[in-house]
Design a protein that fits this description.
four-stranded antiparallel beta sheet; alpha+beta
Length: 330
């Protein structure tokens, strides 16, 4: 090989070696740069909510609030029209009045005319007993003197005892008329009244459900039916967001949890305000096999599950709204 050919060959080797060196250097720089990029985990702001619904079906008569309104506990939110409930109230009140009348009858006893009739029979029986007693005493004296036979004395005695029994029976009838119904009947009548009153109270509670009020302060986030539409039992009418109870939710792979635990304070970036806020972790839970996961078994390792991590702001932050993005960097 000539000197010129050797020189050309060396130049080619040097060019290849230089190119390979540049490629290696660029690869190392890229690897180092990529390795230093922080892992970015995105979450969002969530808020506690409760749904307003009625125990009774009805038609929306009036909506007192609009979406976005802030309400306080006890504020009227919606009014429903439920004619069936009003009809049930009429039935329940009528049943209560009927039960009360029966109880009064049981406690008052017999009518005045019946009591008076029983009293007259008692007086008649007492008069007959008095005459029978006197007759028996006279016959007994005559029997003692030997003038009256034993047969007559026994007949007078039997008549006296019969009138005595009749007088006791008349007294019992009079006492029963005065006392009225049996004690068991009075208790049964009182129980019927209590049952009827309970039915009235139950219907009253249903009537109260036709006026929906806010249970806690918050912001009206969604209203589902329109005025005039029918809603069923338990159907949601609107959703109230409790703006004082917000938190951030992040989905984080388990290999990124090494510096995160319950009570850990995180520095979270809020793009909406271009600010960082402090948040404290209060909840961590495996999202299950259905959640996002990373397979590593292809290279002989293991699967990485995703955990739901919740954190609340350490200090109140004005303007924070549900749905806003949160960025956590590691």
């Amino acid at each position: 090989m000539s000197t010129q050919a050797k020189k050309q060959h060396n130049n080619i080797l040097l060019a290849i070696l230089g190119f390979a060196t540049v490629v290696v250097i660029v690869a190392l720089i890229g690897f180092i740069a990529l390795d230093r990029d922080p892992d970015v985990m995105q979450g969002q702001v969530e808020v506690e909510e409760y749904r307003v619904s009625s125990k009774v079906p009805g038609r929306i008569l009036e909506l007192r609030v609009k979406e976005g309104d802030y309400v306080k506990a006890g504020d009227t939110l919606a009014i429903l029209d439920a004619p069936e409930v009003r009809a049930k109230m009429t039935q329940a009140q009528s049943a209560e009045e009927a039960a009360a009348a029966l109880e009064q009858k049981a406690r008052n006893g017999a009518r005045k005319e019946q009591v008076q009739g029983a009293f007259q029979l008692l007086q008649q029986a007492k008069a007959g007993l008095e005459i029978a007693e006197k007759s028996y005493q006279r016959v007994q004296r005559l029997f003692d003197e030997g003038v009256m036979s034993a047969q007559k004395r026994d007949e007078a005695y039997a008549q006296y005892k019969a009138m005595e029994a009749q007088c006791k029976a008349a007294q019992s009838q009079y006492d029963m008329a005065l006392n009225g119904a049996r004690e068991e009947d009075k208790l049964a009548a009182a129980a019927q009244v209590a049952r009827a009153r309970g039915a009235v109270q139950e219907v009253n509670s249903y009537i109260g459900e036709t006026v929906q009020v806010a249970q806690m302060a918050g912001e009206v986030s969604d209203i589902y039916p329109k005025v005039g539409e029918l809603v069923g039992t338990g159907s949601p009418i609107m959703t109230i967001s409790i703006m004082d109870d917000m938190w951030g939710t992040f989905s984080i792979r388990e290999d990124q949890l090494k510096d995160i635990a319950i009570g850990t304070e995180l520095s979270v970036y809020v793009p909406a305000f271009d600010k960082d806020i402090k948040m404290k972790v209060y909840h961590m839970k495996d999202q299950g096999s259905y959640a996002v996961w990373k397979a590593t078994k292809a290279n002989g390792q293991y699967d990485l599950k995703t955990f739901e991590v919740k954190a609340r702001p350490v200090e109140a932050f004005d303007g924070l709204r549900p749905g806003m993005s949160l960025i956590l960097k590691q």
